[in-house]
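Hey, can you fold this one?
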Amino acid sequence: MPQGALAIVVMAAGVVIIWAVQRYYRRRQMLAGLALRLRLRYSAADQTGLIDRLQGLYFAQQGHAARVANVLQGRRQDRELFVFDYLYEVGAGVSRAVRQCCVIAWRVNTRLPGVVGWQPAAFTPMGLFRCFGRLETGDPRFDGRFATYTDDPQAAGALLTPPLRRALLACPGVDWEAVGPWLAFYTQHVLSARQLIRLISRTSRCCRPLRRAGASGESPFVRC
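Sure. Predicted structure:
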């Protein structure tokens, strides 16, 4: 490669690195300020073993080398709230890429069946979710917005009451899942502070209509 072309490549790589670092620190400052505004605790890294507690969730089955960053944590009424960035890797070598989700997760005082709601997108049965199949609720608007999957249609149907479906429909641009004690929402879009505040408020309303959905045993998953 000619020296001039090599110099351009090096300069371009440097610009990208600087931009990425600046973007990282701007987001970190924004989330730390948001935590202060919402009276939540903030940590730049996972200090509570959150990554291990999330292993039963579908989004945590994606990729490898997963990690959690920019954690906001606190309580709202009788529920624990976690807001964080979830990063994971796909591919290897020159095809390696890092993907990021913004997650809002509520830990509720009930045990929920395994239900995953995706906006029109490919759902891949895998791991704990290998037995999941499509569920139609009979609500045209809800079924048109979310592709819902479960391995326990009876319990999932009992969970997805009209009030919960309306509350989920009011949460724009996110996928969601209910598994065990968790009701989690996530998106690969980078959300601003204003968007996060709005989404935290709307997802909190999804916790109100929750009730025991009849899943048996300690695990939210039904054996194949």
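DSSP finds six helices and seven strands in the chain. Let me know if you want another pass with a different chain boundary.
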